[in-house]
């Protein structure tokens, strides 16, 4: 069993990365071979509309762009479990994650028939979002948007689960930043008391995906 995590945050060692590391640990403990991919280490763009994937006779579900993302798309389709992680930036997934979703979406559809499924394998997917707002803000403002952003994962024929990690600790020293909107003491409490629960939830979610529950 192969599980990969795709980090759509530019910051290694911070919230999204740590959530994914915990999820990968859950997958490894469930028996998966695991790999972390940091999107911000890679050189790529969104779809360039080359239409090589739409040529008659082209290998299905294959992106022919020669950059760092095409092999990642291959890995996603070959994996048993994929764990996507993204911070919320201005109510959206990050631009690097968006470019990946754009490329993935295009290779999974055909202009012959939008409803036709091109991918016949099965990949269970977990989506992890990290953000400043509280849980209620997430549910009110972002939850539907996030589900929509990752809707293409339904085309991978597996289970899709998600988890929101809210009210994250954003800087290591709030006093150095223009951040009067945030109460550092509250943020520190969240980091100490809630974040470990988020890590555990990510671990458990990945285990469920590996076991197909
Ligand atoms: C450019 C930018 C835009 C952001 N926009 C939002 C937002 O719209 N809503 C929100 O709740 N948090 C927002 N945040 C906060 C991050 O989503 C949050 O701190 C996240 O946990 C950061 O993930 P990381 O620690 O992996 O970098 C934004 C942060 C940045 C840098």
Main sheet attributes: strand count, strand direction, barrel closure = 5 strands, parallel
Q: Report the helical percentage.
A: 25-40%
Strand order of the largest sheet: 2-1-3-4-5
At the fold tier of CATH, the topology name is Rossmann fold
CATH superfamily: Flavodoxin domain
Oligomer: single chain
Question: Describe it for me?
Answer:
The model has no long low-confidence stretch (mean pLDDT 97). This protein has 213 residues and is of the alpha/beta class. The longest helix has 28 residues. β4, α4 and β5 form a beta-alpha-beta unit. α1 packs parallel to α5. The chain is built from five helices and five strands; from the N terminus they run βαβαβαβαβα. The site of flavin mononucleotide has 17 residues, from α1.
SSE diagram, text form:
Elements: E1 2-7, H1 15-29, E2 33-38, H2 69-78, E3 81-87, H3 95-107, E4 123-130, H4 135-149, E5 157-165, H5 184-211
Parallel strand pairs: 1-2, 1-3, 3-4, 4-5
Helix pairs in contact: 1-5
This protein binds flavin mononucleotide (FMN).
């Amino acid at each position: 069993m192969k599980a990969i995590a795709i980090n759509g945050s530019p910051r290694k060692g911070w919230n999204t990365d740590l959530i994914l590391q915990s999820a990968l640990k859950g997958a490894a403990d469930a028996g998966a071979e695991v790999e972390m991919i940091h999107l911000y280490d890679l050189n790529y763009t969104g779809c360039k509309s080359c239409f090589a994937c739409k040529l008659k006779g082209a290998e299905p579900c294959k992106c022919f762009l020669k950059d760092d993302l095409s092999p990642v798309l291959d890995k996603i389709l070959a994996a048993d479990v994929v764990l996507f992680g993204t911070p919320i930036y201005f109510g959206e997934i990050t631009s690097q994650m968006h470019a990946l979703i754009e490329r993935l979406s295009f290779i999974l559809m055909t202009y012959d028939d939008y409803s036709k499924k091109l991918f016949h394998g099965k990949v269970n997917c977990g989506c992890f979002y990290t953000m400043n707002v509280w849980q209620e803000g997430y549910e009110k403002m972002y939850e539907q948007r996030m589900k929509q952003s990752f809707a293409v994962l339904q085309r991978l024929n597996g289970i899709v689960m998600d988890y929101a990690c809210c009210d994250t600790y954003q800087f290591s020293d709030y006093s150095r930043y223009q951040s009067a909107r945030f109460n550092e003491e509250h943020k520190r409490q969240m980091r100490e008391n809630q974040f470990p629960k988020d890590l555990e939830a990510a671990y458990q979610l990945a285990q469920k995906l590996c076991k197909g529950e």
